[in-house]
C-alpha cells in the first residue's frame, strides 16, 4: 500500500475505533503517524483512489446511517409503528360496523313497525263482529248490548315480534358499543402521541397505556363487536322467515 494510503487508512481506523467505543476507551495500541504525516492535508474522499481508501469517518456517524439517540428512541419508534397499524385496523373495522349497523337498523325499523300490528286487533275485524252480533239479535227479536271480546295475539305473532325487537335492540347496543370503543381508541392515540417531554417519559406513558388496553382486553372487544352484529342479523332472518311462513303457509 502506498505511504499516503496507509496513512489515511490507519487514521480512519483509529477514528472508527473511537466512534464505536467512545473517546474514553483507550486504543489497543498507540498509533504513531508516519514521518511524512501532514495534519493540514485533508483525507482522501475518493473511494477509488489510493488503494481503495474510502471517505473519512466522522465521529458520531455510522457506516449504515445515523444511529438512534438511545434505547428509548428505538423503543418509541418501533412502538409507534405497532400502534399506528393497530389503531388503523381497529378504526377501520369499527367504522365499517357503524355504517352497517345504521343501515341495518333503518331497514329493521320498517319491519318492526309492520310486525307490531300483529299484536293489535284489526279494527275491521272488530267492526265485522259487532255487525254480525246485532244482525243475529234483530233476527231473534232481542236486543243485548255487544261486548267486545278480548283480543289475544297468536303465539307466532309474539315470537316474530320478540325476534325483530331483539334484533333491533342488539343492533343499537352494538352501534353504541362501537362508538364507545372508538372514543377509547382516540383517547389512547392522543395519549401516546402527546407522551412526555423526554423519550423515557414517552415510552413510560405508552407502556402504561398499552398495559391498560391489554388488561381490559380491548382487542377482544373490537373483535367481538362484529360477531355481536352478526347475531342481530341471524335474529332478524329467523323472525322474517317465521313471518313469511305464517303469512303465506306452504300448500300441502
Total domains: 2
Percent of residues in helical segments?
A: 55-70%
Cα separation of the termini:
104 Å
Structural class: mainly alpha
Order of helices and strands: HHHHHH
Number of helices: 6
Please explain how this structure is put together.
- The chain is mostly helical.
- The chain is built from 6 helices and no strands.
- Helix 2 packs antiparallel against helix 4 and helix 4 runs antiparallel to helix 5.
- The longest helix is centred in the middle third of the chain and has 45 residues.
Describe the structure using short key phrases.
252 residues; 2 domains; 6 helices; disordered N terminus; rod-shaped; mainly alpha
Topology:
Layout: H1 3-21, H2 71-115, H3 123-140, H4 155-194, H5 199-215, H6 218-247
Amino acid at each position: 500500500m502506498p505511504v499516503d494510503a496507509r496513512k489515511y487508512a490507519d487514521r480512519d481506523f483509529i477514528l472508527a475505533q473511537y466512534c464505536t467505543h467512545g473517546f474514553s476507551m483507550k486504543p489497543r495500541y498507540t498509533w504513531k503517524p508516519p514521518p511524512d504525516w501532514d495534519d493540514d492535508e485533508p483525507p482522501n474522499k475518493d473511494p477509488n483512489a489510493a488503494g481503495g481508501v474510502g471517505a473519512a469517518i466522522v465521529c458520531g456517524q455510522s457506516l449504515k446511517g445515523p444511529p438512534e439517540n438511545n434505547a428509548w428512541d428505538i423503543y418509541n419508534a418501533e412502538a409507534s409503528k405497532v400502534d399506528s397499524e393497530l389503531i388503523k385496523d381497529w378504526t377501520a373495522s369499527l367504522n365499517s360496523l357503524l355504517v352497517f349497523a345504521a343501515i341495518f337498523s333503518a331497514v329493521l325499523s320498517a319491519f318492526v313497525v309492520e310486525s307490531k300490528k300483529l299484536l293489535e286487533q284489526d279494527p275491521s275485524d272488530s267492526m265485522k263482529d259487532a255487525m254480525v252480533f246485532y244482525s243475529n239479535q234483530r233476527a231473534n227479536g232481542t236486543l243485548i248490548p255487544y261486548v267486545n271480546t278480548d283480543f289475544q295475539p297468536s303465539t307466532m305473532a309474539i315470537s316474530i315480534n320478540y325476534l325483530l325487537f331483539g334484533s333491533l335492540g342488539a343492533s343499537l347496543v352494538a352501534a353504541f358499543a362501537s362508538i364507545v370503543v372508538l372514543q377509547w381508541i382516540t383517547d389512547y392515540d392522543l395519549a401516546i402521541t402527546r407522551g412526555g417531554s423526554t423519550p423515557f417519559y414517552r415510552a413510560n406513558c405508552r407502556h402504561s397505556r398499552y398495559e391498560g388496553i391489554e388488561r381490559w382486553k380491548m382487542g377482544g372487544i373490537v373483535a367481538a363487536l362484529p360477531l355481536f352484529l352478526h347475531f342481530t342479523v341471524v335474529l332478524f332472518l329467523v323472525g322474517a322467515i317465521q313471518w313469511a311462513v305464517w303469512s303465506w303457509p306452504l300448500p300441502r
